[in-house]
Design a protein that fits this description.
The chain folds into 2 domains: 86 residues, Hypothetical Protein Yqey, Chain: A, domain1 (Orthogonal Bundle), CATH 1.10.1510; 51 residues, Arc Repressor Mutant, subunit A (Orthogonal Bundle). The chain starts with a helix and ends with a helix. Helices cover 77% and strands 0% of the residues. By secondary structure, the protein is mainly alpha-helical.
Length: 148
Amino acid sequence: MSEMKTAITDATKQAMRARDKERVATLRMVNAELKRVEVDERRDLSDADVMTILTKMLKQRQDALSQYQDAGREDLAKIEQYETEVIQGFLPQQMDAEELAQFVADIVAESGATGMQDMGKVMGLLKAKGEGRIDMGKASAIVKQHFS
């Protein structure tokens, strides 16, 4: 079992002992998604797999949060915000805007990219070297800005 999956399982047990219903519900949702992927793909998950799944779940929660806020549903937005915070607790700290801009500039220089036709190569390197610490949407915008 991967270290991240073990950490999530342990956190679930701690939340159950503390009788933190909201945290238990969120962690059970995460565990269910991890189990679903394991069963569907018939394999054990690595830390990289768990990080990918958590990143996907985080993105879904952030999208739902913005939709709920736009619709004025603060009650549902509050739930999504809490789930986002719990999931973020298991992911590496995200780069801030300055750090991300410098990282993108370094990758562009390293790859020898000269224009938009090289964006795919740059994005591939960003994803590989970012190790879950970058928001690919923000990185994409910075790369486009860099080439324009």
